[in-house]
Amino acid sequence: MSRLYVARSPRVAARSLDGEMMIMSGRDSTLFTLNRTATILWQAADGITPLDEIVRLRICAEFDVEPAAALADAEQLSRDLASHEILQVSDKPIPQPGAPSGEAP
Amino acid sequence: MTQLAAEIEAVSITIEIGGIPTRVHTTDPTFLRLLQQRYAGFVSSTENAEIEFDVEITQPDCAAPDAPVRVSHKHGCWILERGDFRAEWEPRAKHGWIRQTVNPYSIDAVLRIVHTLVLARQGGFLLHSASAIRNGKAFLFAGVSEAGKTTISRLAPLDVTLLTDEISYVRKQGNGYLAFGTPFTGELAKLGENLSAPVSALYFLAKGPQNRIDPVPPAEAARSLLANVLFFAKDEDLVQATFHSAFEFVTRVPVFRLTFVPDVRVWELIG
User: Fold this and answer.
1) CA distances from A13 to A28, A36, B215 (A)
2) C-alpha distances in angstroms, B163 versus B29, B158, B177?
3) Which of A12, A25, A29 sits opposite B231 (nearest CB)?
4) How far from the centroid of its chain's Cα atoms is residue B12's Cα?
5) Which CATH architecture describes the domain B125-269?
6) Nearest CA in chain A to B225
7) Which residues in chain B are closer than 8 Å to A9, comparing Cβ atoms?
8) At a CB cut-off of 8 Å and minimum separation 6, what does B173 contact?
């Protein structure tokens, strides 16, 4: 089974205020307010950490959920967020602008 | 003054809104008189305009001011279009042109759009709200249509200076914000005073059975503010800038919900 990788879209503006994560699409100005699970996913979406690890280390650690069910929900949530172009989803790591390449200089 | 300079002066008018002078050139004296009347109180004698527009007057055809506004950006130039006008503005050159018929509404729309573009880069915005000055402090009253912007403006007592009953002009200054009067009117059809003052509070209006003020949590305040900010351009950078400006604003300015009975007593709570 292939692993999924998720990364925050560079085409959005995001702010956390009072524990609420709000994201505005740069494409059409739609404003999204993320729930707690989506916020965890968004904050951990570095393009490098596989989704199953994010679920295991971040979501299962916070919520009392069965890992397989949590991963299925996280995959669906990731694709929903990707459909609004606020998250990128790929079966390969997603390089982030400005992020270290991982190679020695 | 040379004859040429006199002629140029005769066909130009500088409209200063929010401290930003915009010089409008036209060869049509009827249109010039219309602008002088429309923007009375906002006409400036400054020599240094920050924005200049040449207006080309066209003949009426099937102009449709109710058509949606389209604002796009191409090669450093903003293109503004609606059924009743077409305009281009190049910020780097500080210059643009407007093609429209003799009417005050088309150029009014162009000015609103251009000011939103300018303010977005400076941390400010135009807001669907009435605003007024009392005791040297500015208060904003935001809300959708029918929320009470015109009502609260109409109820303002004599010691209150109305800045606008429809669209407030908010500029960032230091750690705070200034509200400026605007000629952009709503139902009251009365130009605001060309003054400014530091913004002391933002109220979201709601009509109700009694007058009361309740604090609005910051996240809700940001959401409500964004819903009332005027923005026309489909431009990712400016959308992001406006988004962050709204958050900056609600972290610096107290935001409340003002529920009010539509009579003069509501002003006892303000100022």
Assistant:
1) 12, 18, 26
2) 29, 13, 15
3) A29
4) 22
5) 3-Layer(aba) Sandwich (3.40)
6) A31
7) none
8) B198
pLDDT at A101: 42
Q: Which of B234, B239, B247 sits opposite A17 (nearest CB)?
A: B247
pLDDT tens profile A53-102: 999 999 999 999 999 999 999 999 999 999 999 999 999 999 877 654 43
Mean per-residue pLDDT of chain A: 89
Q: What is the ipTM of this complex?
A: 0.80
Domains of chain A: 5-87 (1.10.10)
A-interface mutation test, from B72, B243, B251, most A Cβ less than 10 A away: B243
Of B171, B182, B34, nearest to B111 by C-alpha is: B182
Q: What is the pTM of this model?
A: 0.87
Q: Which residue is associated with the tokens 């904003």?
A: B140
Q: What is the pLDDT of residue B9?
A: 52
- Spans of all domains in chain B: 3-120, 125-269
Rounded to an integer, what is the distance from CA B34 to the centroid of its chain? 19
For chain A, say whether B236 makes contact (Cβ under 8 Å): yes
pLDDT tens across B127-154, in order? 999 999 999 999 999 988 788 999 999 9
**If you write DSSP's letter for every residue of chain B in order, what string do you get?**
--HHHHHHHHTEEEEEETTEEEEEEES-HHHHHHHHHHTTTSEE--S--SEEEEEEE---SS--TTSPPEEEEETTEEEEEETTEEEEEETTTTEEEEEE-S-HHHHHHHHHHHHHHHHHTTT-EEEEEEEEEETTEEEEEE-STTSSHHHHHHT--TT-EEEESSEEEEEEETTEEEEE--S---TT--PPPS-EEEEEEEEEEEE-SS-EEEE--HHHHHHHHHHHEE-----HHHHHHHHHHHHHHHHHS-EEEEEE-SSGGGGGG--
Q: Identify all chain B residues contacting A19, using CB atoms and an 8 Å cutoff.
A: 219
User: Could you tell me if B149 and B204 are in contact, meaning their C-beta atoms sit under 8 angstroms apart?
Assistant: no
**What pLDDT is recorded for position A95?**
87
**In which band, very low, low, confident or very high, does the pLDDT at B21 lie, cut at 50, 70 and 90?**
very high
